[in-house]
Amino acid sequence: MMLEITPGLDNDKEEALYIQLYDYIRSEIESGKIPPESKLPSQRKLAGHLEVSRNTVDAAYQQLLAEG
What we know:
Number of domains: 1
Radius of gyration: 11 Å
Low-confidence stretches: none
Number of strands: 0
Largest sheet: none
């Protein structure tokens, strides 16, 4: 089962989409909505689901990895 990740990404915000996605996933993890050790969707699947580029998802995932 794929985690349901549906942030309200907004192209009109000054904040880059990858930062918006990163912030959303991080807050979901911190609140317990995404349990520890959960497998996040593949970059390709999440990018298709959110209708953003894979680079956007990759950048968000890399930021999450960098922070552990």
